[in-house]
């Protein structure tokens, strides 16, 4: 099969699989146990904390492990609102966030918070001033993703967070960095992020593990209650094998960020070039976005129809984001696509192991689809 759905999830790398197996077979202690086996497990997860911290340029003690970015995002948004929201009921986000952020804000809205959602302009560009203008002294949180998972747009997080904090130094900033981690350089202090969400399975580790960076001094009300693990912010016995796998994958990817980015950018440019003779193609990803994602519509053919046609040729892509099971999330329209374009969008998301011949096969299959598939009404 030709796998072009790496924004949905990635194939675990050998380093991750090795680390997971090693933990399952040899390092199976409970990190909270006081004996040697417990200590070994604790050392393993603390090692991963150091790995992630060195990549993000932050303190290891600021990394908290979760079950994935959905949990990290819920913990960040609802945790800040719970800790600070009583006297500061205004919260700010964008109209293009992942469902796990979007739905967390919807929960806050139902609980009586004043949610301000900032949209991009018709070219898909966010004006940082729009966020800063929305900040007042009763604002506790601003949450903005780094790389959009459907289109690859890179959002001006640093400028927004910087401006917001200048206006209100008490404001807490959260960034969903899932699609940017180990793909674009991230330095926490430069981003001015107080909270930052990561996911393991987008970086060639396993599903079911993620992390939340929490700047020292930031208070969060937990989602779960139980033991003292992760300082009580995230109780529950840590999934040591999954965490070890995430650390191994991150350590392997970190030194090659620039090379991988270049390779993937070349693949993306090649795909664009191959697509250009085809009629009815509209590209929704910006040129200066993440090189890992290319979103485009094929006029008059509904996403699911094309997706399953491509699947029949052994090619896996996505329509919009995997989380919405193909349903239109509305995000593409926020970035300037028409409804008809959004309904016929295909997201190709790359990894460095993809090859040009795979992209040629994709384009050939799309052309075949255009010739044979029924057009949408
Ligand atoms: N945020 C973004 C931008 C994502 O792309 C995803 C995964 N689709 C998530 C959050 C959720 O991550 P997880 O699957 O680890 O819960």
Automatic annotation (TrEMBL):
Organism: Ruminococcus champanellensis (strain DSM 18848 / JCM 17042 / KCTC 15320 / 18P13)
Coiled coil: none
EC numbers, comma separated: 2.8.1.7
Cited InterPro entries: Aminotrans_V_dom, Cysteine_dSase, PyrdxlP-dep_Trfase, PyrdxlP-dep_Trfase_major, PyrdxlP-dep_Trfase_small
Ranges that cross the membrane: none
Required cofactor(s): pyridoxal 5'-phosphate
Keyword annotations from UniProtKB, A to Z: Pyridoxal phosphate, Transferase
Domain Aminotransferase class V: 2-361
One Pfam match: Aminotran_5
The protein's name in its UniProt record: Cysteine sulfinate desulfinase/cysteine desulfurase and related enzymes
């Amino acid at each position: 099969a030709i796998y072009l759905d790496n924004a949905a999830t990635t194939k675990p790398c050998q380093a991750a699989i090795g680390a997971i197996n090693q933990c399952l077979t040899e390092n199976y202690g409970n990190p909270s146990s006081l004996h040697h086996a417990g200590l070994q497990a604790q050392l393993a997860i603390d090692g991963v904390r150091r790995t992630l911290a060195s990549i993000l340029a932050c303190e290891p003690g600021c990394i908290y492990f979760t079950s994935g970015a959905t949990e990290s995002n819920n913990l960040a948004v609802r945790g800040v609102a719970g800790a600070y929201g009583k006297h500061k009921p205004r919260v700010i986000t964008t109209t293009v966030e992942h469902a796990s952020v979007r739905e967390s804000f919807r929960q806050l809205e139902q609980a009586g918070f004043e949610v301000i959602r900032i949209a991009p302009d018709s070219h898909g560009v966010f004006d940082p001033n729009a966020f800063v203008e929305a900040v007042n002294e009763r604002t506790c949180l601003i949450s903005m993703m780094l790389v959009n998972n459907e289109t690859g747009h890179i959002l001006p997080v640093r400028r927004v967070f910087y401006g917001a904090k200048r206006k209100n130094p008490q404001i807490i900033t959260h960034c969903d960095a899932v699609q940017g981690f180990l793909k674009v350089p991230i330095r926490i202090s430069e981003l001015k992020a107080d909270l930052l969400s990561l996911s393991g399975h987008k970086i060639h580790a396993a599903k079911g593990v993620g992390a939340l960076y929490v700047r020292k001094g930031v208070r969060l009300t937990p989602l779960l209650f139980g033991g003292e693990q992760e300082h009580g912010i995230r109780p529950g016995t840590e999934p040591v094998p999954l965490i070890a796998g995430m650390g191994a994958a991150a350590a392997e990817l970190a030194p090659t960020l620039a090379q991988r980015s270049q390779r993937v950018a070349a693949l993306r440019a090649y795909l664009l070039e191959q697509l250009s003779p085809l009629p009815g193609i509209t590209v929704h990803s910006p040129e200066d976005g993440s090189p890992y994602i290319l979103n485009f519509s094929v006029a008059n053919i509904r996403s699911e129809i094309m997706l399953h046609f491509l699947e029949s040729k052994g090619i896996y892509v996505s329509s919009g984001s995997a989380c919405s099971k193909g349903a239109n999330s509305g995000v593409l329209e926020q970035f300037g696509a028409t409804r008809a374009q959004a309904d016929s969008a295909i997201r190709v998301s790359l990894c460095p192991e993809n090859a040009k011949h795979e992209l040629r096969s994709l384009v050939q299959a799309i052309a075949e689809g255009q010739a044979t598939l029924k057009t949408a009404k």
